[in-house]
Design a protein that fits this description.
- The chain has 8 helices and 7 strands.
- By secondary structure, it is of the alpha/beta class.
- α1 runs parallel beside α2.
- The protein is globular and about 45 Å long.
Length: 196
């Protein structure tokens, strides 16, 4: 089981209460399982909900936030540790260094940017950590369909698709993480392309 899970999610709470309820339940389950939370360091939106739930359950929470967003995202001052960095690139790198698994709860552009960077790094063989999307209210159903389309069109392999977890059952996600090996996530570069 991973010891530090990086959670990407919205700095807003979304339109429906189910988003907050699931984020709270997810954080509570992390604390129950003794998994530390690594996240973006804010105290608002789903970010704050997950962090508060882990803390309430007696868990460890490490936030990583760029200096320019300390005020905008209202940095959480009650964390186990708050790391302030200078740039977004440093934020993503530091969160990666602190984590050994990654999951996206519902969120916007930032959530997608951060999660897809981790999927790309897995594709390049830079890590073999589990990556998943936890859907609430079918939030990631269309994204899963888009990934199916990427396979159909020959831009990613079936193995790369299968290496990413999609689902709406957080217990199934936690149970899946220790079984992940990551061998099929990397992309083998076609020698014909290199030699062209």
């Amino acid at each position: 089981m991973p010891t530090a899970l990086c959670v990407y999610c919205g700095s807003s709470s979304g339109k429906y209460p189910e988003y907050v309820e699931q984020a709270r339940a997810f954080g509570t389950e992390m604390a129950r399982r003794g998994i530390a939370l690594v996240y973006g360091g804010g105290k608002v939106g789903l970010m704050g909900t997950v962090a508060d739930a882990v803390l309430a359950g007696g868990g460890k929470v490490i936030g990583v936030i760029p200096r320019q967003l300390v005020d905008r995202e209202v940095a959480h001052t009650g964390l186990s540790e708050l790391v302030v960095v200078e740039t977004m690139h440093q934020r993503k790198t530091r969160m990666f260094e602190l984590s050994d698994a990654f999951v996206a709860l519902p969120g916007g552009f930032g959530t997608m940017d951060e999660m897809f960077e981790m999927l790309t790094w897995a594709q390049l063989g830079l890590h073999r950590y589990p990556c998943g999307f936890l859907s609430v209210r079918g939030y990631y159903d269309r994204l899963r369909g888009m990934v199916d389309h990427m396979v159909d069109e020959g831009f990613i392999t079936p193995g790369q698709h299968e290496s990413v977890w999609f689902g709406d059952d957080m217990h199934a996600f936690f149970d899946w993480m220790p079984t992940y090996r990551g061998e099929r996530a990397s992309r083998l570069i076609d020698k014909r392309i290199v030699d062209a």
